[in-house]
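Protocol step 6 of 9: fold each sequence in the batch and record its structure tokens directly after the sequence line. For illustration, a two-sequence batch is reproduced in full.

Sequence one:
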Amino acid sequence: MFIKRNISKGLIGLLVSTSSHAFYTQSGSIYDSAGNIVKIDGISWSGFQDSKIVQGLASNPFYAVGNFSTNYSKTYGMMDALVRPWDFTDSGVTKANGVAFKTIRLPIQPGVLYDNTGQVDMNRSLANKAEPTRANGIFCKVWETNGSACAQTVTPQEAFWITLEEFKKNNVKVLIDFHHKYGYGDGFRDGTVYSLTQYEADLKLLANEIKARNLTNVIGIDVFNEPHRLFWFRDNADQPAWIKVIATAAKVFKQYNPDVLLFVEGSGPGSGDPDQPVACVKETDLVPNPEAYAISDDPTNCATGTKRVEFKGNWGEDFKPLLDKANAKNGVPSFNRAGFIQQLKTAGLDDATITWLMGDATANKAHLVFSPHVYPREVGTWESAPGKPSELRFNWTWGFLKKAGYPVVLGEASWKSAEGLAFFQKALVPYMIANGMQNDLFFWAVGYLGDTISLIDPNGGAINLQAEKVLHDLFSQTIATGKLNVTFTSPGFPVKGAATLTVKETQQTYSCDITNGCSLDLDSGSYNLLVADSYQIDNTAHLVYQVKASNSPITFKITNGQATDVNVSLQGQQIGTQPATQVSYKVNLLDEKGNPVSTQALTTQLTFTSDVNNQNILTCTTQNGVCSSTIYNQNINSKTGAFSNETYQVGLPNSITFNGKTYSLVADKSARSLTVTGTANQLQLNAVYQTGAVSQQNCNVKFTLQNRWDSGAVFQGSITNTSTNAAIKSFTFKISFNGSEISNPTIVSYWIGSNQTYSMNGGVFTFSANTYDPYNGLPPGQQQGIGFQVSGAMTKDPTVTVISCEAK
């Protein structure tokens, strides 16, 4: 079946969706702004709390590899495996046994919000400059100038925001999980919450950035993961009451981003909170299960015919202190909503914020989701038996909150072996189905896990087909079996990037590559396709085009089991030229006394790298010390066609050898960046190099010979932050040796900081590292110890020449 419709349509890069996705809760469910119930159908993707990026990309691609050659054998990427695995035959998944995950829980450590140093670790062979949006190309920051490989990956901070954007393009909602305190690695997951003052600042940053970036797919914030050293309503040693943490999050998001939900886990070790009520259960309802709960006589608190029951709980599962104490003694598990609200008031919340969080008297238009973690014995060391024991445990531990009108979404649940799977299927799933919760779960997880399975093997990319089928059966997803294939016809001028398509009836938006087109899965029915106006730059001809949109949508029909083809004919007109800035950059040389040296016949290379996409790199070769170049502004607003200022970073060599002398960069006298405006402009810039000088930018390096023998030596030294107003977090320095003192020098070992690297080229040794404290950095005026061991034939005590030091 083939349908073709022509529209006047436009596009540039990634367009912004206009649909609203404000979320709220009522009647035990989550709703979007259109009043539709939101099914979580979720999974966690580990990484930003441990390894600075979602795990698995060191071996696998994020998206399917494009048309470039690699040694990777699978046709799909990890994102593809989560949202459309049946489109790839080698996945082993079909629509009859697979899952399209609708929500991803993204664990982070808060430091990633600020970590703009270093590079994330990914398989760079799965990225190619010719197809920057395929495979791992989205995480490449700088491409090789004369090649196709990724020369530099993005920082963890950049990777985090890019990942959220990519989820949005795939119509995947996100729950951002504060998984543990500052620091990468599971060792920082100790059940404590860090400073509430810093936590509040982190939440403000996150709330504002989500709104500023229009990340309408962020459904909520997991307030804090498994705070097992906190009590619900009382401080515990150096840890605040859990209610204070919840109140802090509510205050921030009510003020700065009220469309986002708060997901709240249970606090404490699972039982034993000092405010835990006495639970009395009818003897006729009790089935002994000493592994999960203890039964005892308590005639003082429990009436005749009832027994006192002490229920266990996993980390993150204990909500028993929220029970109404009087009802609990009478055998009824119910939410003490009034008492919880009073605790929020005591924690400092005003009435408006409490109403935003808790909703009205019937819990309508609330923004609170309770999110327990439930694991089998092989993970949590114990479990409840299927049937009545598990039903009792869940009812008294967190099920009563669902009955009070608040959503309960399992934040983590999984297994490792057949034994754990049996608990999941026989104890947990029946309860979820019986209570209308079968779509309210985040499976744990994708990543390097150890104590549970990973849905996708982070090393090889294989999908766990058993887990896919189990979750397919639980979620009972209706997966669209009709397909819409969208292609584009060129308007007669170069058009590239991705168009944002909106299906009017579902309000779902899709990012569709203009060059390759795209395929959308839809159920049978009649639909209307919308595409927005935009503006496009032709970077070759340096022209600006307006690509017009149609006044009416494209109408098409979908039949299950069949494909419908729609061709979008792009039309537009030239409206102007790309603003150009004429740059004249002069390299000045000075002798030892600071006198000018003639630059006649001086040739060197400079680079100009755009901050807009970090990929537009221009190389300029000086003639007689002067580089002349035309730089075109790329920073166009795709909606209005207006140009904003665009900053370029100037790449200067740290040293220049000219007429037998080495000249070092004088950083504070050299222009390291330039701004291209939205109108035609001219710039004259300068760099200064001086012989006998050491290039220093925010740091100073010194070395002293500590020990020497015939074939080696050890140098100890320090790096000092010479900045007057900011800490440094990463640095690079270069050194060389005197060839008359040591022959064939080789670095044997070195100790300069974290994430350290070194390389040698032409007798110059380049060392790079982060400071030992990667979050606070090295304060102004402070030093950090560094050193190295070098081998080589030595005729005398060797000396080290420091060529340059640069720090950020």
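Sequence two, same batch, same settings:
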Amino acid sequence: MLNEITVCGTPEGYDAKIILDELNKKHNSVIHVARDDKRMRAMSDALEFFSPELEVFTFPSWDCLPYDRVSPNLEISSARMAVLSKFAENTDQNFIILTTLNAVLQKVPSKSDVQGYNFKAEVGRNINERQLREFLLRMGFTKSSTVREAGEYAIRGGIIDIFPPGYTNPVRLDLFGATLDGARLFDPETQLTIKKLNEIELAPVSEVVLDEISVKNFRQAYRSQFGASFANDPLYESVSAGRKYQGLEHWLPFFYLELDTFFSYVPSATITMDHRLETDIISRCNLVADQYEARNFANENKPTKDYAYKPVKPSELYLDENDWKTILKNRRSLVFNSLPQALGPNIVDVGGRIGRNFTPERQSDNFNLFSSLADHIKDRLNFGPVLIASYSTGSMERLSGLIEDEGLQKPVTVSDWSGISKHILYLSVWPLDQGFETSDLTVISEQDILGDRLIRRPKKRRPENFLTDTQELSIGGLVVHIDHGVGRYIGLEVLTVGGASHECLLIEYAESSRLYLPVENIDLLTSYGHDEGLLDRLGGAAWQAKKAKLKDRIKDIAEKLIRVAAERSLRSAQILEPVNGIWEAFSARFPYEETDDQLETIRQVIDDLGSGKPMDRLICGDVGFGKTEVAMRAAFVTAMSGLQVALIAPTTLLARQHKRTFEERFRGFPLEVRGLSRFQSVKSNEQTREELSSGLVDIVIGTHAVLANSVNFKNLGLLIIDEEQHFGVRHKERLKQLKSDVHVLTLTATPIPRTLQLSLSGVRDLSIIGTPPVDRLAIRTYVSEFDAIVVREALLREHYRGGQSFFVAPRISDLQEIESFLTDQIPEISFITAHGQMSAPELDGRMNHFYDGKFDVLVATSIVESGLDIPRANTLIVSNADMFGLAQLYQIRGRIGRSKTRAFAFLTTKPRKQLTTEAEKRLKVIASLSTLGAGFTLASQDLDIRGAGNLLGDEQSGQIRDV
């Protein structure tokens, strides 16, 4: 292709600079096609560093497979439509647009179709509320009680909240009769105004718009291609009625007379891409063809009475290899290759090379990492400036201190490329995976120095009180006002007082009395925590009397709690403090960027260890949110102070995983880490016991075997209890008996009600880690009767996207039935079975095979509930889900969704089985907890369902709501 130029010497990061040169020199828009979402984000970060003022648009791909049954995520659909709407309007400006191969190989509605769908409104002008409601419904917006994500809307009287495509925050419209009285951007968490608007413009959320014309087009196309029989066809019935149907976007060609390519929206743009894209195109086209054939094969083998998925032809929705070549033939394109190549007429070398990686030094027991780094920096400063790209301000400051310790001059901190000029050392926040070098520039990434990392984007920190915004209130739910008692939350209303508008929470009390509470006083409310309860009279004396009576009733308990707390405060423990220098080096090894919650929790734990009093702290954080790192920091401080550490895990699998993690992290430090469980040999366990007693072992990690009377410590300083809900009260009391002045750190995602109540009561200190890793997507959870077709499709979807799956059952006796199902129904996939009655060597071998990716599916019992961390595994099938407890289901579901890939959980029950009320409630709760960081919420709901148990006795649950 004459217009294609291969640009060599463009490692990732440096390629962004070449794109900017193309934009500026050619005065032309650029569409960069990345191989996947990760590389698209990396390019976005690099462009932001080199040109922070430049507006960059992102066009993502659907987060579902071709011919899937699920729709793309609302946020992704919204982002796609925002870009299509933007470029459907003719513009003379030049832009950079980032997208992925999967996104551009899929056809989109034409510019003329997208131009016809918009809604504009100006403040002070009349607005037709009925037309607005119809527009939101047709354009794919989802109605919600509160607006949290793009594509959602909520209507409460004269207040309409909308999160439009292309907006970073939702919009609130205030209607006064038929007039748009005001419009403003607001923070969905705090409800506070960010900016007032004079007008708004709404675009569709979905590429499928269900108006009269599109529905007519669909009906005609569907009948033409698949015939006139539509009995038991929910897709055809739903669309014909103008209703959304899950996955209807996969029939996009039927809704329009013609589709177009994304490139038609920016007809003269230069295309840039990675040289490996050509291979990826073939793989993607093969996947589309395979999925299409799988759908047709399933239809041929389906009973005639069942609904058949009728897929559109691949050529109608997707581009193939020839279509791609035709597009490139008529455009200027740059193909990036990080490696050097023989020069030719269409091959240039811009001189970039992949930078040095310090893996050998990092893995060396000599611990010479930072001295090697300093030597390399001194050498490269002879050629030009050296930049260390850090993941965050915190890690940048840590690296600066460590570099200065090696005798180098203090690095200069810069915010972007414009601040770099002299032959000196610079530091900047730029989440670059791998550094690069040119003849006059050296960029070293934090990952080059410290190993694989995953940045977590900044997240706004919320106030410490539990009830902080209206999202935590459900309309019709019961709330408690500190002065007026139990009322029912009706919703938000705007009151005009003295010519000024005020947003108020409307609370209804007995005898239809109403209280309007300004939103800024929301801290006066708490959630009642139960669906049923008698409303108090507004202004009556009953609430105050009830509070006084409650004080009397809990007086005895309070005295006991005070006595427990007093005894604890009188005990003393050795003061433990981090050792400067070596503490920073250990912290710098953490392969993630700490979140605000994590940093605060680490600070609290370090303060506890240095207080001279025994620590007793509960850390509640969702799966994968970084609790183990807090434990490792505490263990490091304790062990480096000469005391021993014991980490107790409920299962051998979890203990083994912790042992591996600790051994890797503590390598190079003078500390001995050992395991104590049935995965270790009898001889090894005996040696560990002896060396614990003599003090040769610094850190021991094991199961309840650590609690045996035969285990004695020479100088135990810290007990770490992981997944505490699996231990009984007496197990925990045995832990504390090991030494009266021991520090205790408890980790959990879903604390048992008794533990949560003790923490909320102040008897135990509580830390909550509620911030998820960056780009972690909430798990999509489906609860239904077991459907062989749905399960087959889910497992195949994971298989085709290169992932792994869990198939979990409550009993060992259920596993054989699952094995038969997989063998008969899905011969394309491989599976392996694991359960707790297997011998340790056999179980260990099977788990290692699954870890290594040798099998697609792990068939198991609840043994997988704790300890498995496999980012590739992102589909979960649970058989007989009603037989699991709420916390169990939550922990099992936590085995998936531990990466940036969308995860799917299918909780199934036996067909036509009558569920108990409790089981039905559990399944409803787990399905509703779809947001990240919901573990604390789950524990709170469990506290409501089961009660707190006996705070001072052995019972861990039991209704005590009346107290």
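Proceed to step 7 once all outputs are recorded. Observation for sequence two: The longest strand covers residues 485-497.
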